[in-house]
Specification:
alpha/beta; 416 residues; UDP-n-acetylglucosamine1-carboxyvinyl-transferase, Chain; binds ligand EPZ; 4-stranded mixed beta sheet; elongated
């Protein structure tokens, strides 16, 4: 199991380029199921989750090839309509094959994802929507078995905005008979990216990015040839790394318009963020100020940045309240940050973070993707050496993070 070792205290400086968005490329890969032919996806990040999705698509009979940040997906023939438990348990985004398989073949057998480190993460809203569109769905032996001669357009109301639920149903509706309206839909930039990709394939979709999306089903879609948006959470993670080390970093290729809530909050904490052409210039202050955050669906503060932000607040001047309103168990980084000297108290969905002068390096353990990013951010500023175990979590969502940080001057290395 690889580990990452960081000797903290270096002010980051220089330029870093942002990779393609993990949470955009995964639904784009499953959107290719809706067409039959040679699909190309560009600006793809080389991540474990992308490889896992590629293996799942290969299991369905498709040709998958990833080279030089480009995916070739040959979706002419399908030899299986089943997403086995082994894939779904390692990556719950595998459920994104459900809508497209049902729309293309009229059948799908997908393992229920089961819980994950950050919460139960049910998919009841995905299932509710597909049933509204006429799918017959049974649950047996941990699998969802879905069938529908042809899905029919319907009006679907989400109790809560669900990102992959919105994506699954948007893909299913693209080939359905009639019009589908998704109410209280997720507004994340990755949802908009998927809608733009589907439209480039011939889909008829309006309103992506708002909470009401209208999809007029069509009979056929062309193969995909699409370039993925940059990863806003990677961008925000590098902003946090520059901020916590009093650094002066140029971040190339990010989209600040996808990160307004994060940039507003990071400025409130005393960080200078200036946009110059396609670069974000981030300057960390001598001492960060404590501010409160509450995670919300987009355009609110993203839950995927909560852990990294907590690392910043751990050495800020004052006390900050961090409320996690999306997932029920997304504070596993707290225990690890406390091993590094942070003063954090969790009560229900709120963590009270009392800023300390500095953190001290320690052996810590990654528990989930963003928790591991939080430990990297903390390690960059901590006095002494931090060794992070179980970095496979980090490799799921960050392309070459230690190389990118080393280019910015960090003393960081991967230990086999
Ligand atoms: C997506 O997960 C992202 N993953 C997550 O990123 C992200 O944290 C999350 O959205 C929230 O922004 C991908 O896009 C691949 P949800 P998703 O459905 O779609 C509840 C990362 O670190 N819910 O928007 O699974 C659910 O339990 C990952 O990159 C239901 O109750 O999240 C949660 O409390 C982690 N029933 C809330 O809604 C459902 O049917 C939001 O979940 C669906 C969701």
């Amino acid at each position: 199991m690889d580990k990452i070792e960081i000797i903290g205290g270096v002010k980051l400086s220089g330029e870093v380029t942002i990779s393609g968005a993990k949470n955009a490329v995964l639904p784009l890969m499953t959107a290719a199921i809706l067409s039959s032919g040679e699909n190309i996806i560009r600006n793809v990040p080389n991540l474990r989750d992308v490889m896992t999705m590629g293996k799942l698509l290969a299991h369905l009979g498709f040709g998958f090839h990833l080279e030089d940040n480009q995916i070739l997906l040959q979706t002419k023939k399908i030899t299986s309509i089943e997403a086995p438990y082994d894939f779904v348990k390692t990556m719950r985004a595998s459920v994104l094959v459900l809508g497209p398989l049902l729309a293309r073949t009229g059948r799908a057998k997908v393992s229920l994802p089961g819980g994950c480190a950050i919460g139960a993460r049910p998919i009841n809203l995905h299932i509710m929507g597909l049933e509204k569109m006429g799918a017959k769905i049974t649950l047996s032996e941990g699998y969802i078995e879905a069938s529908a001669k042809r899905l029919k357009g319907a009006t679907i109301y989400f109790d809560i905005p669900t990102v992959t639920g919105t994506e699954n149903l948007m893909m299913a509706a693209a080939l359905a008979d009639g019009t589908t309206i998704l109410e209280n839909a997720a507004r994340e930039p990755e949802v908009v990216d998927l809608a733009n990709a589907l439209i480039s394939m011939g889909a008829d979709i309006q309103g992506a990015g708002t909470s009401s999306i209208k999809i007029n089903g069509v009979n056929k879609l062309r193969p995909l040839d699409y370039t993925v948006i940059p990863d806003r959470i990677e961008t925000a993670t590098f902003i946090a790394a520059a901020a916590i080390t009093r650094g002066d970093v140029k971040i190339k290729g990010g989209r600040p318009e996808h990160l307004e809530a994060v940039i507003n909050k990071i400025k409130e904490a005393g960080v200078r963020v200036v946009q110059k052409n396609d670069k974000l210039i981030v300057k960390g202050p001598e001492r960060l100020s404590s501010i409160d955050i509450k995670t919300m669906p987009h355009p609110g503060f993203p839950t995927d940045m909560q852990a990294q932000f907590m690392a910043l607040m751990a050495i800020a001047d004052g006390t900050s309240l961090i409320t996690e309103s999306i997932f029920e168990n997304r504070f596993m980084h707290v225990a690890e940050l406390k091993r590094m000297g942070a003063d954090i108290k969790v009560e229900g969905s709120t963590a009270t973070v009392k800023g300390v002068e500095s953190l001290t390096g320690a052996p810590v353990m990654a528990t989930d993707l963003r928790a591991s990013a939080s430990l990297v951010v903390a390690g960059l500023a901590a006095h002494g050496t931090t060794v992070i175990d179980r970095v496979y979590h980090l490799d799921r969502g960050y392309e070459k993070i230690e190389e990118k940080l080393r280019m910015l001057g960090a003393k960081i290395r991967r230990v086999k």
